[in-house]
Amino acid sequence: QVQLQESGPGLVKPSQTLSLTCAVSGDSITTAYRYWSWIRRPPGKGLEWIGYIGYNGNPYYNPSLKSRTSISRDTSKNQFTLQLSSVTPEDTAMYYCASLGSNYWGQGTQVTVSS
């Protein structure tokens, strides 16, 4: 059974960098043709895809967030990490990690940007 678990601070101050980690069990993040994504849902809004890191380690980002986003991985720990810089209250959302093609999702973690 594949499980994804997000972790990271629930509160981030404006202008700081949001950092979240997704730990994957039951599958390898290097499995061919798996793409490991970060997605978010701001309060009262729909899902927004942030970006992914592929099985080969190559990232790809939503153009609207690209300048502030970095997704990396640690294959020894089978986990991948999101960093979103210069956050504002508009970045407040429930953040999910997922493998969309395989329909694996984490339960999500709430991040609030506030001073």
| Largest beta-sheet details | 7 strands, mixed
Which assembly state applies to the chains in this document? single chain
Helix content: under 10%
Structural class: mainly beta
Cα(first) to Cα(last) distance is: 39 Å
Proportion of β residues?
A: over 45%
Compute the number of helices.
Answer: 0
Beta strands, count: 11
Instruction: Indicate the overall shape.
Output: globular
Give, in order, the helices and strands. EEEEEEEEEEE
Indicate the low-confidence ranges by residue numbers. none
Question: Nearest-angstrom radius of gyration?
Answer: 13 Å
Averaged pLDDT: 97
Please explain how this structure is put together.
With 115 residues, the protein is mainly β. The protein contains no helices and 11 strands. The protein has strands at 3-7, 11-12, 18-25, 35-41, 48-54, 59-61, 69-74, 79-84, 93-99, 104-105, 109-113. The strands form 2 sheets. Strands 2, 4, 5, 6, 9, 10 and 11 form a 7-stranded mixed beta sheet that branches. It has a 4-stranded antiparallel beta sheet with strand order 1-3-8-7, with no helix packed on it. The protein is globular. The termini are far apart. The mean pLDDT is 97.
